[in-house]
Amino acid sequence: MSLEKSYRPLHETEIEVLTGQGCRVFDWKQIEVAEGFDPSYIQNVHFSGKVRIGLFDRPAVQDKGIVRPVGLYGLRVQDVTIGDNVRISGIRDILANYVIGDDVWIEDVACLECDGQSCFGNGTEASVVNENGRRSIPLFERLSAQLAYLLAMYRHRPKLIERLRHLVADAVEGLQKPTGRVEAGARILHCGVIRNVNIGPAAVLDGAAHLENGTIRSCAEDPAFVGPGVIANDFVFCEGSRVRNHVIVRRCFVGQSTELSRSFTAQDSVFFANSSMGQGQAYSMLAGPFSVSQHKSTLLIAGLCSFFNAGSGSNQSNHMYRLGPNQQGVLERGVKTGSGSYLAWPARIGAFSVVIGRHIGNPDTSDFPFSYLVERMGRSVLYPGLNLVNIGLIRDRIKWQQRDQRKAPVKLDAVNPDVMTPYLVRKLKRGIQMLEHLTRKISSHPESILHQGLRVYMAERGLEIYRWSVRQYFGRVLIRRLSERKFISLIDLRNKLETSVELGEGDWVDCAGLIAPASVIETLLLDIEEERIDTVDAVQVRFHALLEHYGEYEWAWVKENLEQELGKPVREWDVKDIVSILEGAQAASQQIVHSQIEDAKREFERPMRTGYGIDQPQTHADDDFAAVCGSLEEDEVIRRFQSQLDQEGKTIKGLKEKLAALH
Q1: What are phi and psi of 554, to 5 degrees?
Q2: Of 143, 489, 500, 595, which shows the fewest CB atoms inside 10 Å?
Q3: Predicted structure pTM score
Q4: What is the pLDDT, as a whole number, of residue 247?
């Protein structure tokens, strides 16, 4: 709806037509219309306050084959501005203090009102991660996973928190208005009370029960959807979000292309890009991108996660407190919990680990990523590194790349879906040091080693897998660097392998889905604290710049590590040095792939055929299993993975030939 549109008072003939069609008003002088207004499209409407009405120059609106005439029918309106070619019908109470955009369709709604100055959910405090509220963050419509992470997890830097909150408060202040908005192309059908809610372009609300104090961001490229039975208070829903099927949320943020469905309930929680929650419960959760929970009996409480997958009946608790609910849990990226798993907070689970069983000893496995944490005879047992040779991890990596459904022109979250990154490899290197120390300390090779309250099993196997993975990662990053650059001589190659940034062997940070060097994050934090960044948007730009330049930062870190391993800087590398790295990576890949295929074979072994060929299992079990599950050789994940390995071999062969020709 154009802000430049001019309005005029009603003509006497138009007033007569409206009166004849059952319309009533306290003062006709308060009604203004656009030039070209046609009163025949307004029937049985009671006007009060200042009302402006646009044109009806298109006869009907339609959606999913349903066609209805445009116009205003059977409602009370007060202090509203209505755009062109709108259909509003059957508001049972009142439409008050709203601006309605062009081509909006509102049908069968209890009421749509703004009852005074409102920020529409922006500025609402949500007690994420800790139920006691001491990590609370302000919700607002441009919140990103990274900004939420800093606000919640950097309480040790009070100046940073104060400054970030000031920037958010500035952004929220500009959103406070005495009138709500329903933007162009939105559909609001068969809903209950909608009070103090801003509704974005092309959003669809169909059957929502009660919405109060919220913002629904939306756009034509990626409409938001709020479906049947939804009850939401103090909320922000983003573009592409789908909240439906009797979901109940309070003080929650739902990120871009995130789905909440099937009676899911949540309070004081934030869910970021491409997450999916159904049936269970969440309280005080900061759920980073690609967090998934789909089971009725699952409770997620007082924690931080991303790329997370909760099994049926996964539960956490912080009920062992004495001075209040101060405990919290950290599930580093990629953690999976098995059916019936339980974790007593506080605890921290290493990245891409699998949790099976009950664990009440407050485990910290952050230095052992890709592990299995298993309950064994009532005790917590750790199998380090075994998830690295689990074929399911490969399937997850492929899945995340395919499931980024965000279509909005501006993506709020800066998300890196890679499994292997400097953040993880840094942890692998620490894990190697830890396992080397443990295995040296115990010379008799016992079945298990006691470490920080955990029984560590198969330590030598974990050490072997970690070493393979580090070697494979370094080689693959080098392969990518060599493949992306042309070089005609060894000197030219050395120059191309140099970097414009120096990172050393420092730590990296997983900032709720964004992988970045800790030193670069530190620079950003100092710029915020010292007021060199003065808007939320400027902070977001910096986050996305880190994502954009990730490849260069990654190579700088890998180069430093390779230089340390080879004992000389890149400017002194010769062809033999580079070939040794490539061959080491190829050998490591072959070992890992062989282990992963061996793991996949278990899906096709005889015990897995139980229940197939029901009526004559001895005769038809194999054929029935093959018809339903296929074979190892035909499996799509295996074939794709084998193809990638073959392609990597060809690439390495080509690079070696090219290197051999250098002078």
Answers
A1: -60, -50
A2: 500
A3: 0.94
A4: 98
